[in-house]
Structure formats: C-alpha cells, structure tokens
Amino acid sequence: MPDMTSQTDSPVDSSVIPREALRVSNVEFRWDQTRAPIAYPEIMLNTGEHLFLRGPSGSGKSTLLSLLGGLILPDTGTLSLLGTDLASLTSGQRDRFRADHMGVIFQQFNLVPYLSTLENVMLPCRLSRKRRARALPTPEQEAESLLTALGIAPDHWHRRVTGLSVGQQQRVAAARALTGGPELILADEPTSALDSDNRDRFIELLLGLAAEKHTSVVFVSHDQSLAGRFDRQLALEVKP
Fold first, then answer.
1. Bridge pairing between strands 84-85 and 76-81
2. CATH, domain 18-235, list 3.20.20.150, 3.40.50.300, 3.40.50.1820, 3.30.300.20
3. Residue ranges per domain, the chain?
C-alpha cells in the first residue's frame, strides 16, 4: 500500500497564501485489459511544495507523471491541476495548459539538437505567451540568468546543445523547465546520469530556483538519499 509522509523543514511564509497546485483523488489507470489497474493514493500538493516520488519499476511513477502532464487521462477518479480538471479539457487544450503552466525535465532531456543552448532554454517562451510574459525582465535575460545560476558558462550559450556534456545538458533541461515561471515542474529521474557531487549540486540549484519562483516540483527518483530534501514523499509499490 503506498504511503505518503510529510515533513516540514522550514517555517511557512505567512505572507504567501497557499494555493492548491495539484490533487489526485481515486485515480486509477490501466494500460491494457490484461493488467490490473494502477491505483494511486490521494495526493494534494500546494504551490511551492515539492514531492519526492519513489518506487520500483512497474509501480506507476512515470505513468503518474504522464497523467499529471495531461498526456494520458485516468480511467477513474479526478486529477486536478491549479484548480482545473484535466479530463474536462480537449487534447489540444491540455497541450496548451501544459505549455502555459508546466515545466518538464525528461530522463533523456529531450533538448532540440539543432537549437543553441540559449534557444533551448527560451523555447517555452516561444510556445506560450503566458510563459513569455512571466520571463523577466525579458525571456533572453531570464534564460541567461538561469544558465548562469546552473553553472553554464556564456561561451556555451550559443553552441548547439549536442556539443555539451551529459551533465551540462541536464542543467540546460532544468533551466528550460524553469523559464517563464511555470507553477509546476515534473522531473523524471533527472539525476540518473550524474555522480553524487553533481547530483547534490543539481538538486540544490533546482529546488532553490523553484523556491524563488514559488514553483511546485514532482520529482521521480530511485535514489532514496535525495528524499530528505523534499517537503513530501510518496512511495509506490508494485501490486501482486
């Protein structure tokens, strides 16, 4: 049975009124009729809170990210993001909602190979007017600020991302997810290719920048040592 534990490591800023970032209620999803459905526990996350999601292969972690991203819809139950029931939207509306409100860090990064580092980071602002309006003072300046904070030197900004190391590409993917101040970031095993020192630095920077923007993070990982850095933890198990 999945368990959800919560911990509060820092005082709540009383000047910020909590807003519900996501709610998962009675959600089940079945990939095909030969398998038992994946049943998820109740999940509620406020804006600015971070969730660490762990569990063995087959427990439904990546499926939950796909559900939260609106790429697939649950068979039963309700999945609400920022007060919007994703099932009430058309496929095109879900794509627009994701572009406007979510940043995604894929395990394989999914950077656009023919674009430069800076162009990759600015891409969400090209796809969403809302993200572009929130990128301050300008999309390019915010992208440069994020790349600087994540340790990508200016002489890499105008190179194609294919010329970067794996660790650098990972940080570019994080900068792209953060640009334009999305309310929610979905991260699927984003530190799997990093050594322990770079992994810890990456997590510190990601959560620090998310805190500045009051962005919620749902972070999937097998690495239990990272769990203590997150406000909430959710463990999924494979049902027999």
1. antiparallel
2. 3.40.50.300
3. 18-235
